[in-house]
Amino acid sequence: VKTDAGVINVAERVERGECGSVPFNELVSALQLAELGGLATGVVSTARLTHATPAATYAISAERNWEDISDMPAKAIEAGCEDIASQFVAFEQRLEARYPGADVDGIEIAMGGGRRHFLPADARFNTPDAFSPVEGDRTDGRHLMDEWRALYPNGTLAIDQAGFDGYDPESGERLLGLFNESHMQYAELRGEDVSGEPSLAEMTDVALRRLDNDPDGYFLVVEAGRIDHAHHANSSRGALLDTIALAEAVAVARAAASDNTLIIVTADHSHVFTMAGHPVRGNPILGLVREPGESAPSLAADGLPYTTLAYRNGPGFRDLGAGVDPDVIYGTGPAVGGRQDLSSVDTASSGYHHEVLVPLTSETHGGEDVAIHAQGPGAPLLQGTNEQNMIFHVMEHAADLGGRAEAVLGTP
Predict the structure, then answer these.
(1) Please, which residues have CB within 8 angstroms of residue 346's CB and are 6 or more apart in sequence?
(2) Rounded CA gap, 347 and 230, in Å?
(3) Which residues of the chain have pLDDT under 50?
(4) What predicted TM-score, i.e. pTM, was given to this entire model?
């Protein structure tokens, strides 16, 4: 169904941030149906595991930002709402309580960032690559990583590359990977992580090798969440490099998939990101426009050069040099609007952030239709233009998720 911005797996009658509006308005996700029907399940993201897209596979919340209890108002806690990280750990218990007679085995593979939402707000529980003096955010004293270990003593909890590499996907055991305090590194900076992080392609490969051992099939969500974050910072370089990382993960999935596996690749929205000018063939995509026949960058009517790629709004121009995390822009002063002289600026550098017309603290999403690509059973149903909520129904139809769940539960 169509839902409202800022809420997770609830119907439109729910008011964002109002815990009391949730009861009797809960929805069921494709991953939850897959669990009820006996399929193996997984969720992989380069964002925090409690961020909006991964959370939408397993959680129910009136506020997407309630990633841990410290993010929740006292009113919501008193009303009995549960934070998203806690819902992840209690996924089996919550789903079985909601559907009497269900006996699910839980999410086999979950990988992403977001350790801070699983740890107490106490420096004694910091991990080796914590970048904050106190890594954890939880104000209830709960150590959800330890709680997960207690629930799944044979499972692997990995926080770095070594832990990831030590996991055997053929073991039949589950894996929880929490590879960063917050979001995972941008693809370009992944090698600079203190303890190391797996790539999106590596995580996809391991997830598929584990999940395809289930004879009943599997359901897997993979998100390249940092593409969005780089766009919000007006960093086309960061966004495009993470898009390449997504393409590599898609290639892994296509190579691993059997003929009866449906693969869907799409986005949840666009950005106010455009490609303009008439650059000569072979001109660097991150560079200044140089039109055919010209030896120097072309000049606009204001006498200044301009880039092929551009954003309409956002934090705006910065020239911060090489090897810079795109997120650093949020600590470098107010938004900058208007044209700049880029003649001596390396616009291909990781520290370059684009000019904008409208200065905002963060670039906004756009409103265009986004591409959707599919292969496998059900793929022809996604030709042309589709409403976004149709994607669920195509997946449900292709795998008979509802029918499988009903067969197990014994109720229509």
Answers:
(1) 319, 322, 352
(2) 15
(3) none
(4) 0.96
